[in-house]
Amino acid sequence: MRALGQIFWEFFRISLCVIGGGHAILAVADEVSAKRGWTEEGEVVGHLPVFQMVPGIIAGGTAIYVGRKVAGMPGAAAAFAGVVLPSIIVFSVVSAGYAFIPLGNESLGAAFSGLRAALTGIIAAMVVRTWKKSVESAFAYAVLLVSLLAVGPLGLNPALVIAASAALGVAVKLACGRGSSGGGNCRVKKFQSVFWAAPLVFLKYGLIAFGGGYVLVPVYIGDFVGSGAPYLQLAEREFADVMALTQMTPGPIAVNCATFFGYRLGVAEFGSVLGGVGFAVVATLALLLPGAILVYAALGSIERFKENVVMQGVLAGVRPVTMALMLNALWVFAGMSVWTHVDGVFAWHPLPTALVAVTVWAMLCKRIGVVKLIICCAAVSVAAHIVK
């Protein structure tokens, strides 16, 4: 029971302190889990392709992987509960008090600026630490470059990129034989009642959420935004504000959105805060359930068949994609902290840049805890704003 409590607390603490979605939680969880001795350094990040290939949220897959390894199914359940509860609690409160949130408060904005800078540094440090394990041959470098182009400028769904890379890895592995490593040695309809809509619609979302929460944004717009939407008919401006809040509050973006939309559906159906909170919980759990079951099963299959030549080919093909996805996430976070590009105007921000550099140095050279780094960067950013 003590181990389950530790697993729950660590993931509750990570999810409560980390802002920015599944990739950020993945990076922080890798660091914390390695310090605890639950996994090796870079091991959790190395399973990102598995989390991307299965429907569901990256943060949930991360929690299930670590919890399962430490204490089996009870550990996976404890870690999963820990990573999800902060989102449900915090965003239920956000949804209930949405009209009173000071979105334009400068001190609050400064704190979030520091948080984003810290997360940028954390992801950068993880890229440095795991590079050699992910990119170790000419074949891997080629997959990395093509994957960066595919998920970046071309904007392809990461799940498609991963599937193609896995198939290529298997082909190369079979062609080159079992002894090759990553190809390096080879030359060559709408519901009438919202009561039923909440669980069934969000179950559907959970089954199509390949590649993280951003994949669901077009689906959310179609179902909840505009006068023709079947459920809530939110104004576009309000939806934009909600998306901003999902990135400024703890937990995975997809979970925060599900909690918000579930709350609004409950209030619309029952006209009470209690009904809203109840539907928020139902919607969130419905979103998470398919991915949790599938990722648990997928991880078990990998452990059983990791010596199989086909599985080796899959992993050889997708390891470089892991690094491409991490680099893409790093670029996104840097674009929210180190620089911004709005309406054709480019701006570079010295303080967040310094915070990113200090975070990378602290993680690589001083082994300072990531949660402490996140809190310190937010405090420094607020202090600098006040002094200015």
- Number of separate helices: 15
Name the helicity range. Answer: over 70%
Assembly type of the shown chains?
single chain
The helix/strand series, from N terminus to C terminus, equals: HHHHHHHHHHHHHEEHH
Largest sheet strand order: 1-2
| Main β-sheet description | 2 strands, antiparallel
Task: Quickly give the structural class.
Answer: mainly alpha
Distance between the termini: 49 Å
The chain-level mean pLDDT equals 81
Portion of residues in beta strands equals under 5%
Description:
The protein has helices spanning 2-17, 22-36, 48-53, 58-96, 106-134, 138-151, 158-176, 194-208, 217-224, 236-248, 253-270, 273-305, 309-337, 350-366, 370-387; strands spanning 339-342, 345-348. The protein is mainly alpha-helical. Strand 1 (339-342) and strand 2 form a beta hairpin. Helix 5 packs across helix 14. 50% of the residues are buried.
